[in-house]
Design brief:
This protein is α+β, with helices and mostly antiparallel strands. It has one helix and four strands; from the N terminus they run E-E-E-E-H.
Length: 68
């Protein structure tokens, strides 16, 4: 069951490992959760720790950057 936060956002979104995480060290990864209008990012080793919340547009710009 998801609890709703301010603005109708899910307070307990479904988290998944980001495809941008380093697969050579599976214990060190970034997890991502998508809700209506926003993307949430957290450290998999600290699921109750701080989270970064971005707009969907900001996430798209961030992931489109060349890592090279």
């Amino acid at each position: 069951m998801n609890r709703m936060g301010m603005g109708g956002e899910d307070r307990d979104p479904v988290w998944f490992k980001s495809s941008y995480s380093d697969s050579s060290n599976p214990g060190d990864c970034v997890e991502v959760a998508m809700t209506t209008g926003s993307v949430h990012v957290r450290d998999s080793k600290a699921p109750d720790g701080p989270r970064l919340t971005l707009t969907a547009a900001a996430w798209t710009r961030f992931t489109a950057r060349d890592a090279g």
